Amino acid sequence: MSNRALLEVIALDVEDAVAAQAGGADRLEVITDMAADGLTPSRETFAAIRSAVDIPLRVMLRKADGFAAGDVSRLVEAAREMRAEGATEFVLGFLNPDGSPDLAAVEAVVAELDGCRWTFHRAIDRAADRDQLRKALADLPGLDTYLTAGSAAGVSEGLPVLLAEAARAGEPGYGARILVGGGLGLAHVPGLRAGGVDAFHIGGAARPSGWDRPVSAAAVAEWREALG
Does pTM surpass 0.85? Predict the structure, then answer.
């Protein structure tokens, strides 16, 4: 296990990004519209954040609430635009109505990314079969992370799944890093770290005054210290 865990923080704008980096974030997930659980930001927002900080940025590719891909051409165009703006890391993930991975949509978007690294986000927590999803996606270029709470209900419910999957690291379908997020609290950290998890994702936890207020550098620093 790495001595230093990765800390990723959700950033909606430049103010968030600057505070998150000041607090010790290693990476940002750049999104808009948390009311829809995070959609693709504007090119202008991404460009402004990229100019303001020097830590890696993962850009959300998602056009509507939920985990259906919708109009795949819009997703591909968003990926193309963000690549043209200089984005090199992404977040995406789409399911079919039956909870299986929407491979056609994922593959179409990934083809536009041309080898860029990307996270399959919490759609995995709504999958009908997590193991099947992981194995179906395992050979896609650039996939290096799963953002997951282990359960659609959040980390407290998903802890057994997270620890079981961490223990399978290196098996077919389990090569990508587990990035834990979704109802994550500081109390969860010791058990997850002991179980081999070394990447953590926070949104609301970085905003103790609520989502209508910016990221708190002090809150991020508390997480940085707890993670080691």
Answer: yes
